[in-house]
Design goal:
Blueprint (H helix, E strand, L loop, with lengths): L23 H15 L17 H6 L2 H10 L4 H18 L7 H8 L4 E6 L5 E5 L10 H16 L8 E6 L9 H14 L4 E9 L1 H10 L10 E6 L5 E6 L2 E5 L28 H25 L8 H20 L11
Parallel strand pairs: 2-3, 3-4, 4-5
Antiparallel strand pairs: 1-2, 5-6, 6-7
Helix pairs in contact: 1-3, 1-4, 3-4, 5-6, 9-10
């Protein structure tokens, strides 16, 4: 039986622990960054003063984990981190993350199923599937906007302790390679504005030209690549794990189950057990509803915790998870006294 809807956020913990304590040196760097963004009269530099104050969405985005991701990306240099965060805050406004790139705006680009969210790997990372063969003859800005929108929705669907996403790209039936310009733009956005957000990348039927392009870029942009990268050139049947550029390890296609459980992976092209078929209307409606409800729940909890910069995503998501589990128990009619269902 075909499946057409996205899967809900897993409630299991994936054996992920809450954020560990920072070293004294790193804590000092974090405190410096936090203090910068929490002063009473803080405004974004070089921005029209009427719009320079942080919005509620921006304060929500500036979580404890977000500050740490940017700190790690700058080797714990507080001044550089502040500059990168402010540049990204401006970029998010200019790109339209909070107002322009809405579900209605990107939907026309999504109707073919060129990119969609489905399932989670064994570490709870939401999976974005991309099919370059379904991209139009000319790649457009809206294609990039759809990919960014999908990434933002993946962040909405991350459970406690999950900070990265999984990217699965299948070049089967693709008759053209993506332009280097689009590749370069994508890499620049990920490296600059989404540090430590790409945790896993699997590429199937990789065209030789793109394979060479990636090989050339990896030594230059090594820090932007996830710890786990799998490439499957079209002329090979094995997967290659390229966690380290100099240490490639071949593995059978079946071993993808080490990364995904079969029931979290689509069957077509990826050998999972889910007979997922992209049917745009039911899928899109369900995805938008799922993400909006979850984000709304996180906002409610975040406001309850103070609604300020530096609140831990872990605390927010644990609270949402626990409330969701309790709600499901209530709705389903949990067993109560003497094992009897209560109305």
């Amino acid at each position: 039986m075909s499946v057409h809807l996205p899967l809900p956020v897993p409630t299991r913990s994936h054996e992920i622990a809450p954020p560990s304590a920072l070293s004294e040196k790193n804590q000092t760097s974090y405190d410096c960054v936090l203090e910068h963004f929490t002063v009473v009269d803080y405004t974004l530099p070089n921005v029209d003063q009427e719009k320079a104050a942080l919005t509620v969405d921006e304060k929500f985005w500036l979580s404890y984990e977000c500050l740490l991701r940017f700190l790690r990306a700058t080797n714990w240099n507080a001044d550089t981190t502040i500059k990168r965060l402010e540049d990204t805050l401006k970029w998010r406004r200019e790109f339209g993350i909070y107002d322009k790139i809405t579900p209605e705006y990107v939907e026309p680009e999504a109707t073919t199923g060129k990119a969609f969210l489905f399932g989670y790997d064994t570490r709870g990372r939401p999976a974005i599937y991309v099919s370059p063969s379904k991209v139009g003859a000319e790649e457009s800005l809206r294609t990039m906007q759809l990919m960014v929108w999908m990434a933002e929705r993946a962040f909405d669907l991350m459970g406690p302790g999950v900070e990265t996403l999984a990217l699965l790209v299948d070049y089967a039936d693709s008759t053209k390679n993506p332009t280097f310009g689009l590749c370069r733009t994508t890499l620049d956005i990920i490296q600059t504005h989404y540090p430590e957000r790409l945790g896993l990348a699997l590429v199937a039927h990789l065209p030789w030209l793109l394979n060479a392009f990636i090989a050339l870029l990896m030594p230059v942009h090594g820090s932007l690549y996830p710890a786990e990268v799998g490439l499957q050139p079209c002329h090979q049947r094995e997967w290659s794990s390229l966690g380290q550029l100099h240490d490639a390890e071949a593995w059978d296609a079946d071993s993808i189950s080490r990364v995904f459980e079969p029931d979290q992976l689509i069957q077509e092209g990826w050998n999972g057990s889910q007979q997922f078929t992209y049917s745009h209307c039911p899928y899109w409606e369900a995805l938008v509803k799922l993400c909006e409800e979850r984000r709304s729940s996180m906002f409610v909890v975040w406001h309850r915790m103070g609604g300020k910069v530096g609140i831990k995503e872990w605390d927010v998501k644990v609270a949402v998870r626990d409330e969701t589990v309790d709600a499901h128990v209530d709705v389903d009619g949990a067993l109560t006294e003497n094992g009897q269902l209560q109305s």
